[in-house]
Amino acid sequence: MKIYLVGGAVRDELLGRPIVERDYVVVGATPAIMIKQGYKQVGKDFPVFLHPETHDEYALARTERKSGQGYGGFICDFEQSITLEQDLFRRDLTVNAIAKANDGQLIDPYHGQDDLNNRILRHVGPAFSEDPLRILRVARFAARYDHLGFTIADSTMKMMENMVSRGELKTLTQERIWLEIEKCLADGAIEHFTTTLDQLGALTDVQPLLIDWNVQERTQLKKLLMRLPHSHPHNKIIQFCLWLYDTPSDKLKALEQTLKIPSRYAVALRDFCEHKACFIPSVSAQQLLTLFDRIDLWRRPERFDLLLEIITFSQYNNPSLIALIKEAAANTRAIDVQAIIAAGFCGAQIKTQLTQQRLSTLKTTFN
């Protein structure tokens, strides 16, 4: 039984990047051996085990053969005789097919180190075309490592183009597509991801709202994202909204349903797309009151705060105007309902009077 560090951890170590997670492949073992040594089995389709102390993932060396269409149509063979080289051959890219032994020796049968040095993303073998998810993964890696000068090998681009033309991406679930998009948002290079998919003719399958993607769109988004700190607590949500800033209101609901995006992304995008037009110098008091009502400033001020953050990093950024709107929001929220009741208003009159006072407060600032 031998254990090797594999995949992203080896790749990023060689690139001098921080290692986020460590995955291991185990050669010469069986599920029974792993369990006896205290590992906890978590895989169903193929044996993956968690280390009893570190909880890192350890997978038995395996081969795969296609048994159906799409991401999950594979039959795995994890016999004890499977070699490390066989396991590495099933991986997507040569740079992800490098293993590291406990003594530090690198096992690199498919020349991943050469491709790392030459900044090339290249598929390992013909089995690459059996898994459409790899199209999104390669686009994501190309985006992540673009600043290091990485490009996709021509042969790999051609293979992915053929996969797209055959409709392979249509076999992926929307949940899997969203997972790759969210990972790309975490990397902070969604504009490069989109451009790669556009070059492959894959945007219609992944994000049909961006089928008119062009150099101008990419340049504008990249410029905006350069101002957005990676450490910002809402980094991914802000990127997502800037990415889809031009989505028509009547398309928002369809987007939420088809892409299956989490509600925090959906609400933020809806607020931005529907209300970004309010952040102009000529905005009226009535427009702002409508904005405050629709985003429920009165009960959910954090929703308004997030909208301001998105606007701050968008092409609609106007610091003095944003500060003024923020002040107006605070002033309208400070209006005391109890004081209105104490003044003798009751029933529907309370709401009417509250609205009038809020509007009057806003007019003092904006009219």
UniProtKB/TrEMBL annotation:
Belongs to the tRNA nucleotidyltransferase/poly(A) polymerase family. Residues 3-122 form the Poly A polymerase head domain. The gene is cca. This is tRNA nucleotidyltransferase (CCA-adding enzyme). Keywords: ATP-binding, Magnesium, Metal-binding, Nucleotide-binding, Nucleotidyltransferase, RNA repair, RNA-binding, Transferase, tRNA processing. Its cofactor is Mg(2+). PANTHER family: MULTIFUNCTIONAL CCA PROTEIN. Pfam families: PolyA_pol, PolyA_pol_RNAbd. Gene3D superfamilies: Beta Polymerase, domain 2, cca-adding enzyme, domain 2. It comes from the Bacteria. Coiled coil: none annotated. Residues 149-210 form the tRNA nucleotidyltransferase/poly(A) polymerase RNA and SrmB- binding domain. InterPro entries: CCA_bact, NT_sf, PolA_pol_head_dom, PolyA_RNA-bd, tRNA_CCA-adding_enzyme.
